Amino acid sequence: MTSRLLAPAGQQLSSSCCHPRRTPSVPFRSHRSCRSTCRTTTHATSHNQQQLQHRDQEPWQPAARQASAAALAAVQACAALLAGQLAAAEPAIAVLNSPNARIPRTVDAALRRSIPAFNPQVQAMQRSLEDVAYLLRIPQRKPWGNMAGDVAAALAAFDNRPALLAGVPPAQQPEAEQLLDELFAKLKQLELAVKTQQPDFVGVRIADSLKRIADLELLQAPGLSFSLPREYASRPYLAGRAIVQLTVEKADGSLAFVDNLNGGLSKQGTVLLTLDGYSAPISAGNFVVNVLDGLYNNKPLQMQQNQQQWHGCLRPIQASYASVITPGNSVQPRPPIPLENLPAGTFDPLYRLPLDVQSGELPVLPLSIAGAVSMTHLPDTESFLSGDEWFIYKFDKQQAGLSGLSFDEGTFGVFGYVTDGMAVVTKLQTGDTIVSAEVVSGLERLVRPEAGSNGSSS
């Protein structure tokens, strides 16, 4: 009788070592067949070992082994040396800042956020739309659902229309009503643009809507939301907004500017400066007084001068290095004014102290916007600025650090921006002239305490 080696159900004897190996639904093999397979495998293994021994005896093998050993020793030595250097080195200290999204990057955004919000419903609407503008900057898959929710929240505010008009003086109620009608129409257009997912149209509608909100908030803002420090209470100040128009001309009288009203080229250009007394009342008021006194009429301009003297002026001019600088009166200079900055999230300006931008102290009116207007520094001090010399800052990203801010941010007191005519500013050169400077609106916001009256009655 032929004997069989049985295995448990579901297992099969291995052909190489006769141990059971689980292979489902495979029939059992006999002991004789297993022994035959083992002999065949053993013969193949012996043949492979002979080939390896023959190959190891080839003459080039010892040299290759020596080369491999030398290379391995070199790698180990380098690794040990590098490990020792890393252990002995001091820890590196590096600070990398990403562009700060909390600081405004455009003139419109900076001036809009500087308006004191006295109406909570309008303020909430503004926050919703600014959230849409922020989400729109996401480069790829935009959160259209979140944007639609913000627009719906802004439209829902119109369910209580009288609350949106709270704070508007009675004489300006018709203007405010018209602004609300325009705002509602723009919001409906924005709602459609978001629903159809058209980024370009969304950007345009957001800008239009936020402009109407800013105009409405200006009507609701009665004046300053804080009191000036006692030591500066006798200085003139601007309790709101004012617009100054500059008429400039090239030194050679060339037709370098575009006439937007009549078309064609002109030898004179127009620049509009919007002065913000809500954030910098003393600086803006001082500038308005200088304009009223004719201090900048027929005044030559300088470009990118730093700590230099011109026209016999004995005082060095310290302004930001990419600027259009207007010198003041070198014979009888105006009294200096304190450095004035309103930090974001605070209620009143900070005087005589630069902002600690590295620690996150950011101004409401940043310098890091092309067209920022500020007074120049006096020599050997960061606490006071010139009372008559000022400049327009021509900011670009090449002048910014890793945070996207100017290296001079927080050290100058910005009190306004170029809101029209920046193309004219970029064409100005040393020797070009401010033909005239005049206040075209907002003069009633100027307060002169020493005279006991405002600018309109002085």
Helix/strand layout:
Elements: E1 11-13, E2 20-22, H1 31-56, H2 61-88, H3 107-113, H4 120-136, H5 144-156, H6 161-164, H7 173-195, H8 199-220, E3 237-238, E4 241-249, E5 257-258, E6 265-266, E7 268-276, H9 281-292, E8 299-300, E9 302-303, E10 323-326, E11 337-338, E12 340-341, E13 350-351, E14 372-377, E15 384-393, E16 414-420, H10 422-425, E17 433-441, E18 446-448, E19 453-454
Antiparallel strand pairs: 1-2, 3-18, 4-7, 4-17, 5-6, 7-16, 8-17, 9-10, 10-15, 11-15, 12-13, 14-15, 14-16, 18-19
Keywords: Thylakoid
InterPro entries: Cyclophilin-like_dom_sf (IPR029000), Cyclophilin-type_PPIase_dom (IPR002130), CYP37-like (IPR044259), CYP38_PsbQ-like (IPR048563), PsbQ-like_dom_sf (IPR023222)
Biased composition (Low complexity): 35-47
Which regions contain 5 or more consecutive residues with pLDDT less than 50?
1-45, 54-60, 92-99, 305-321
What can be said about the biggest beta sheet?
10 strands, antiparallel
SSE sequence, one letter per element: EEHHHHHHHHEEEEEHEEEEEEEEEHEEE
Number of domains: 3
N-to-C span: 134 Å
Strand content: 15-25%
What is the helical fraction, as a range of percent?
25-40%
Morphology call: globular
Tell me the number of helical segments per DSSP (H or I, 4 or more residues long). Answer: 10
Name of the top-level CATH class of the largest domain? Mainly Beta
By CATH, the topology of the largest domain is Cyclophilin
Number of strands: 19
Examine the secondary-structure arrangement and name the CATH architecture of the largest domain: Beta Barrel
Mean pLDDT: 79
Q: What is the CATH homology-level superfamily of the largest domain?
A: Cyclophilin-like
Structural class: alpha+beta
